[in-house]
Amino acid sequence: MDLTSYAELAVLLVNSPDRLTGLEGLRALLEDGGHPRQASRLDRDDLAALRELREELVAVFEAAAEGDEREVVDRLNALLRRHPVHPQISDHDGEAWHMHLTEGGRFSDQYIVGAVMGLAAIVTDLGADRLGLCQASPCRRAYLDTSSNRSRRYCSERCASRANVAAYRARKKTGKEKTGL
Prior knowledge:
Blueprint: H1 4-14, H2 23-32, H3 36-39, H4 44-65, H5 69-82, E1 88-90, E2 98-100, H6 107-125, E3 131-133, E4 142-144, H7 157-179
Antiparallel strand pairs: 1-2, 3-4
């Protein structure tokens, strides 16, 4: 069972604070994230639960960005205790039998369990340093580094390009100052 897609739910939530201001924004977020079926079932309790989870996940990514592996693990363990996993075999939408982490409960319960379990799997399989915050100033969006060489430092190609251009301009300016040009 590949839990990376579940971990991506956590990244989606962390990177979308502006979409958690109301139910319509949350519905749009879920539709954009590939969960249109669930978007129609949302209510205010789901919105409140996902806002709370977002704050907790931001703290997980901040701890990872600071290199505090113990803090990452402690925070994830606290979330796992509060939101226990209930695996279930499913064959919905004509798909073959596959595992889901939870089927019952509110939508937010399912989202929370998936996001937290996905991050826990990334941390235990690949390491806490695979969670990060974009290093392009002032971005600070979350990302998962699933590269083979642990090289990801930016949330997107756009931020990577922007940071590289800024670094080039800084080097060019420093070079001119050294030569007196």
